[in-house]
Design brief:
The structure holds 2 protein chains of 2 kinds. Chain A is α+β, with helices and mostly antiparallel strands. Helices cover 20% and strands 40% of the residues of chain A. By secondary structure, chain B is α+β, with helices and mostly antiparallel strands.
Chain lengths: 474, 460
């Protein structure tokens, strides 16, 4: 345990100024107003081609103000946190929402912070840059030592600190101060079959103690092994086969197969195949899916969401039955129910919307080895890449970055990269085995309507009866 | 040097003011030190319509500075989302400190004027910044109305949006670079939802222009409606190898993947399948690809690149032969060639290397004529999973697709939930036809219909 040096005692924004700004935002009427002030600091270091190429640092600070009148939201943001700057932004947001009379007049703010369940031991900003550069070199050496076919290595370190305060006309006032630390390694291996790549990353909502718990040399070696393995890989099959997904490797499956489709904003617009299906059996009884922003240290952890609501553990599907969607302030307000703590935004320059946090499939009872052994001919995916979904149809794709053939119940040859495609409701129904060996996966960034937010996911080993493998082999 | 978002009040004076600020920063370079300052400011508006009302109206102003320092052959960078002098001064100090911890490379250094004269382009139009908010709202609502009023199966949208931006940017270096520019853009986009019983399909349309008057609202709505409705009844089809027809908007996606592999950075670092192939045939003789930011038809047109050099026309592939790679100052120096003025950046990043206004040189035949010449194929209207299914290092491509089968030269039943797989190397060689139907995409890429033989479709 090391001492924590806190350097963030300066007040981001005075609560009285926030209350005054809210009154200004509602001066011409409106049903709801919110001011969100944010301060971000980031730093990164990057090694490529054997050289520490670049260290960068960035800072941004500003406020976003929204005013809601009926079904219309007006939004404006400013980097000017002075009373004059905030007043101008409040007026712009109010003008955008076009007033409407009535509404809220008095705003009395009550502070409702939520304590973080984990405090970083070492703020990354207090660590010497040379130490960070040392991690990059260590990763580079380790990846290159994994095999002479490794022809290229890049490694990135990044840290981010985000402080925000949010206040709204319901009287809510809450703030947060969070740190994320990330390290990734990408490798290229070169052989007779051309070039292959491998990537590994580790990221948590923790400070620099991340590197006490994880060895970047091991991470780099895994990234190198992934590229080397694929040099001998054969083209992936083309067509439908059973697919076994390894623990921790494949949370993106649920993120795409149903996660986005359970976001209340898309449901409300009829742009989700899961609209109107609460209470129905939408998945195999083996499926219990939870979106949980409270999992300490995970990449999608939040103490409060970006609208000031405490993060929650939300059960979305229990034993295959759809129990609820995910909600933000606006959608919940319309339905007269509480937010589920899923209102998130990329920065003060963006409007919040319904987003996932850590989306996890709870462990089942099957034995992971038995799942593989009972698969006659299929594909074992150790590591998934990103994915994409059309929520209106439920069709989704996701990439496999490390996969093997299963033949006669045995994992055999490595496969080249490719996408898998399936239909969300069908795939959820086709899950026929879930093991007891749960693990969280690597950190992710989820994109929606042009906004990226950090998310986590986790799964135990599981099997889908049939998925379409987008390879080229017969 | 592009300024994607922008400033409502921007005029020649305010842009000159940004340039003076950049020059003052660059002038702070000490002995043996080079300093580059990139200053950008912008404003934007977006209006989303839903159910005949404004769903949201956002107005935004932003500004920032990126500072690059090279000293003792080491480079450091820092940026801030503010023009506040105190914050900017701290940012310069951060950049200097960052440089101390990086490792040396003799090829590092800022751009120097190279004598190429910038091609003047009119990229700023007052009509955009003067457009009243009511008119922006009207466009968004009208777009939704046009989309939901054309076909009884399309009664709602996922999003219908009007957006615009005006931006100005300036760059100055202690090595003599001094350049500034400003531009406006506006766009319409809609995602239509078509319903038949319990089935829902989504189709999109979009348009980008320098001025609102050039936006074709009816075409955007019609594109979205056509794409959503013609997919109703789509099912997966059996796996097989077939011919793929990519309409220009999707051909642009593929051409951009190719362009992304042809940068000096990938070449230097061994991350392109086309290293050592300059002068060799890498594709069909029908294929010629050029990156030309001096072409005003492209939304990527800009007189300057991200390091302040005058942009120029760069031929990448000529009749199937690989002509060359794109470079910024650093990759050019490392390889002993001249920069192609292909530095791309924002204020928050150091200049990378990339395509700015990539275009396929048109061939022969209309879209319909090319479709009519295909016996067994698929006309693709959407590709998904590009970020997870395209490996630009190995060249492997495997993506989700939706579209219509082509049988005996005629469009047939709709297809969904299938993947298409090949490699970039094979795809380029398998190009069987290049259309004459050049369309400039919102991304700034100019593309035509491409017909690609022998692609693996995975389905049922």
């Amino acid at each position: 345990m090391r001492d924590v040096t806190t350097t963030s005692d300066d007040v981001l924004i005075d609560p009285d100024l926030m209350a005054q700004t809210l009154r200004g935002a509602l001066a011409t009427g409106g049903d709801f107003a919110e001011v969100f002030a944010e301060d971000r600091r980031s730093a990164s270091a990057h090694l490529d081609d054997g050289r520490v190429e670049e260290l960068t640092s960035g800072r941004s600070r500003g406020a976003g103000i929204r005013v809601v009148v009926g079904d219309t939201t007006g939004f404006a943001h400013t980097a000017d946190l002075t009373p004059a700057g905030l007043r101008a932004a409040a007026e712009a947001a109010a003008a955008a929402a076009r007033g409407g009379g009535g509404g809220v007049k008095e705003v009395a703010l009550t502070r409702r912070d939520v304590a973080r369940s984990y405090q970083p031991e070492v703020l990354p900003e207090t660590v010497d840059k040379g130490t960070k550069v040392g991690l990059l070199r260590r990763a580079d050496e380790s990846a290159r030592a994994a095999g002479s076919a490794i022809t290229q290595v890049s490694a990135s370190y990044s840290e981010g600190r985000r402080r925000f305060v949010v206040a709204n006309s319901d009287g809510l006032l809450a703030g947060d101060d969070g740190v994320r630390t990330l390290f990734s390694v990408s490798t290229v291996a070169s052989g007779d079959t051309g070039l292959q790549t491998g990537r590994e990353s580790i990221g948590h909502t923790v400070g620099f103690e991340l590197f006490d718990q994880h060895d970047v040399a091991e991470l780099a070696e895994r990234a190198a092994r992934r590229a080397l393995t694929k040099l001998a890989a054969r083209p992936a099959p083309s067509g439908q086969l059973p697919v076994v997904i390894g623990k921790g490797g494949g949370g993106v499956l649920f993120h795409e197969a149903c996660g986005h489709g359970l976001e209340a904003d898309l449901v409300a617009k009829g742009a989700s195949v899961f609209a109107g299906r609460v209470g129905e059996q939408v998945a195999s009884p083996l499926v219990t899916l939870v979106d949980d922003g409270t999992i300490a240290r995970e990449w999608g952890y939040v103490a409060i969401d970006d609208e000031g609501h405490p993060a929650q553990r939300n059960v979305l599907i229990r034993d295959g039955v759809l129990t609820d969607y995910m909600w933000d302030q606006l959608r919940a307000r319309k339905e007269g129910r509480p937010s589920s703590g899923n209102g998130r935004r990329q920065s003060y320059q963006h409007l919040p919307m319904v987003r996932m946090t850590n989306t996890v499939l709870l462990a089942g009872d099957d034995d992971p080895d038995d799942i593989i052994a009972s698969t006659d001919h299929g594909v074992y995916v150790a590591h998934l890449g990103g994915g994409q979904v059309n929520t209106a149809t439920g069709d989704f794709v996701f990439g496999m970055t490390e996969a093997y053939l299963i033949e006669d119940g045995q994992i055999t040859e490595p496969l080249r990269e490719g996408n898998l495609i399936g239909n969300g409701p069908q795939v959820l129904t086709d899950i026929d085995a879930v093991a007891g060996d749960f693990a969280m996966g690597p950190p992710g960034t989820c994109g929606k309507d042009g906004q990226g937010v950090p998310v986590g996911d986790g799964v135990p080993t599981l099997r889908v009866k049939a998925l379409t493998i987008g390879g080229t082999a017969a | 040097m592009s300024a994607p978002t922008a400033a409502a009040a921007a005029n020649e004076d305010t842009t000159a003011e940004l340039l003076r600020m950049a020059e003052r920063l660059a002038a702070q370079a000490g002995p043996g030190e080079q300093v580059e300052a990139y200053v950008a400011r912008g404003s934007s508006t977006s209006v989303r319509a839903y159910d005949g009302e404004v769903e949201s109206l956002s107005v935004a102003q932003s500004a920032g500075v990126g500072i690059r320092v090279v000293a003792d052959d080491r480079q450091g960078f820092a940026s801030c989302g503010s023009l506040d002098p105190e914050v900017v001064a701290e940012t310069l100090a951060d950049a200097r400190d960052n440089a101390r911890h990086a490792e040396p490379d003799e090829a590092l250094g800022l751009a120097r004027p190279d004598g190429v004269v910038p091609v003047h382009q009119e990229l700023w139009f007052d009509e955009v910044v003067q457009l009243p908010t009511d008119e922006k709202v009207r466009l968004a609502i009208e777009l939704e109305r046009a989309t939901t009023g054309a076909d009884e199966r399309v009664r709602s949208v996922r999003t219908a949006m009007y957006g615009d931006g005006a931006g100005e940017a300036a760059i100055a270096t202690s090595t003599g670079i001094s350049a500034a520019g400003r531009g406006t853009t506006c766009h319409l986009s809609v995602a239509a939802l078509a319903r038949d019983g319990s089935e829902t399909r989504m189709g999109g349309g979009s348009d980008v222009a320098r001025t609102p008057g050039e936006l074709d609202l009816d075409q955007v709505a019609a594109d979205a409606v056509e794409r959503a409705t013609r997919l109703l009844g789509a099912t997966p089809v059996p796996s097989r190898r077939l011919t793929v027809v990519l309409e220009p908007r999707l051909a642009a996606t593929i051409v951009c993947i190719l362009g992304g592999t042809l940068t000096g950075e990938r070449l230097l670092k061994g991350r392109t399948p086309f290293a050592d192939r300059v002068g060799e045939v890498i594709g069909s003789p029908l294929l010629t690809v050029v990156d030309d930011p001096t072409d005003p038809r492209s939304m990527g047109a800009d007189p300057h690149d991200g390091e302040g050099l005058a942009t120029r026309r760069n031929e990448l592939v000529r009749a199937g032969e690989l002509v060359g790679f794109l470079h910024n100052t650093w990759t050019a120096r490392r390889l002993g060639v001249a920069s192609t003025a292909s530095a791309v950046r924002s204020y928050a990043s150091t200049p990378g290397v990339g395509c700015q206004a990539l275009a396929v040189t048109p061939g022969e035949g209309t879209h319909d004529e090319l479709v009519a010449a295909v016996d067994d194929g698929i006309l693709v209207q959407s590709l998904t999973g590009l970020h997870s299914g395209v490996n630009a290092v190995s060249g492997d491509i495997s993506v989700g697709a939706e579209g219509l089968l082509i049988r005996g030269g005629a469009l047939a039943e709709p297809v969904c939930e299938v993947t298409l797989a090949t490699t970039l190397q094979r795809l380029l060689t398998d190009i069987e036809a290049v259309g004459a139907d050049l369309e400039w995409q919102p991304s700034g890429t100019g593309a035509v219909t491409l017909v690609i033989g022998d692609v693996t479709l995975s389905g049922r």
